[in-house]
Amino acid sequence: MQPKILLVDDREDNLLSMETVLEPDGYRLVKANSGRQVLKILLSDFDFALILMDVQMPNLNGFETASLIYEREKLKHIPIIFITANNYGEENIFKGYRAGAVDYIYKPVNPDLLRAKVLVFVDLYRKNHRLIAQEQKLVAINKNLELEIHERKASEAKVTELNRQLLENIARLETANKDLDLFAFMASHDLQAPLRKIRMFSDRLLLNYKELPDKDTQLYLERIQQVSKRMQDLINDILRFSKISVEKETLEEVDLNIVIQDVLSELEVSILDKGAKITVEPLPILTVNTILMGPLFSNLIGNALKYSKKKGIPMIRIHSELSGGPDAGVNGKEGEMRYCRIYVEDNGIGFDQKYAEQIFDMFRRLVPSAEYEGTGIGLALCKKIVEKHRGFISARGKPDEGSVFVVSLPVKPLKKEAI
Question: Where does a domain end: 109, 132, 158?
C-alpha cells in the first residue's frame, strides 16, 4: 500500500521543495496551491495519510481550511501538520491545534525533521489501516460464526425432531413386532387342535383301509399324513420362534458342554442313522439364557446332520475361541467386552457363499424340500436367539465342501435381567 500525502502551499517552489524531500521515501504526493483546491480534491479523494499545509495562503488560510476539512466526518481522521515561517505565540498555536492541527513545522524546513515527522504519521496510518482490515475481517468472521451457529441450532433442532420421530417409530415397530409375534404364537397354537384331529382321523382311515385292495385310497391317506406331519413341524417351529419374543427368560451361567451333550442325546437316533462322527472340544461357561441354548445348538447340529452328503461319513466338529468383539479395546484390554466364538463345522453339501446372509431369513431354503426335509425356520431361530444375547452369527461355506457356522456370544457377564 502506497500512502498518499497532500502537500498544500500557494508557492510552487515550496511544493517542489517538499516533493523533493519526500519523493525518495516512496510516498504518493498530491499537490494543491490553495485552500479551495484542497477542499475540491477532498470531495472525491479522502484516503490520505497526512496533510502538510502552509498557514499563510490567500483567500482561505491554513486554519480556515483545516476547520472546513474537519467539518466532514469522513475527513476527521486525516492528521494535518501546519508549515509556517512565523512564530505566532501560544495563543495562535492553540488556535491551530483547535482547528485540527497535530503538529507544526517551521520554515526553513529541516528535511530530516520533515521525513521523521511524516514517517511517524504514515506508520500510524498503516497501523490504523491494518486494524481496520482486521476489524473488517473479524466482523466477517463473526457474521460467518453467527450464520454457522444459526445453521447448527437449526440442524440440532432438526436432528432432535428426527430422533424423536425415530424413537416413536422404533416404539411403534417394537409394539407391532410384539403384536405380530403374539399373533403368530396364538394362531399357531390354535392350529394345533384341528391339525391333531386331521392326523387322528387319517390314522383311523388308514388303519381301516389297510386290508382293502384299494391302493389309491391308501396312497392318498399316506400323503395326508405326510403333509400333516410337515405342517405340524412348521407350526412347532413358528411357535418356538414366536416364543422367544413372547416369553422372557433370565440369564444365568451355563456350561455349554452340558448343553451340547443334551442336544447330542436328543439327536442320537439321527446320529446313529447317519453314522456321523461328532467331535466336541471343551467349551466355556457363559452367562446366557439356558432355555434358548438348546434350540440354538439343536438346529445347528441338526442342520449339519440333515445336509450331509449321500455318501461318506458325516464329520462334525464343535470348538470355540475367545476374541475381541466390536466393543473390545485394542489388544482386548481388561474389563472391556470380549466374545466367545463357537464354531460348528461339517463336511456336508455346503452352500454358495453369496447366500451366507440369506440363509438366516425366515422360510429361506437353498435346496429342494423334496430332497431334504425342513421348514426353513431353523436358522432364523438361531439368529434371533443369538441377537437376543447381543451376539452375532455368521456362516461360511462352499458347495460340496461343507460349511462353518460361527456363533459369537458375549463373555463379559451381563446383568441378570429379563431379555
Answer: 109
